[in-house]
Amino acid sequence: MDNILRWLRSILLGAEKPPDLEEAHYPRDASGAPDLTCFTRPVEHYARYIDDYLESLEAPRGAPPRAQEWQVYEYQKYVLGQWGLIARGSSEALPTVLRLLRHRIPEGRQAASGVLGAWADRGTALEEPVLAAAERELAGPDTDIETLSTLIGILGRERSEASLPFLARVLRDPNSRNGDVDWCSIEAIGDIAGQK
Question: What pTM does this model have?
Fold first, then answer.
């Protein structure tokens, strides 16, 4: 219904422009990453950004298409929401990330695995939730290769010996060559063994 009202409003009043996002103006480093110390809002604020984007992907059939600037706006919120969760850290945002790891839309799981990867790179120990999420992703009816590969990479960087049986199952899976999941698994085993 909101889409129809928005469409009618655009016909009568002209196209509505997306609002400005304060996070889009935060200082960035040479790699383009925003200054994480600026992300001071509650976890729910950043989770809402991600949820809004995921909802925008599920437009009902027959709904008028959204203008490109609105699609860009929703995607920008999705990216900034991930930065916000990274900034808030696992002590505050882990429940939200675990919820996103179970999302039916792959982009939700991709966002969550990316946040976990950033936390792991900063030294946060995440072996148990990452292994559980990787097991679930592999066993699910619509395995997302990007999510699974990211989770496998984290297990390697964590040097998770507990993940070795799982990685062996991944390598034996007939679909392991899809998206180079087999290669990611071999690299993770090498990281765990401390060898290339």
Answer: 0.86
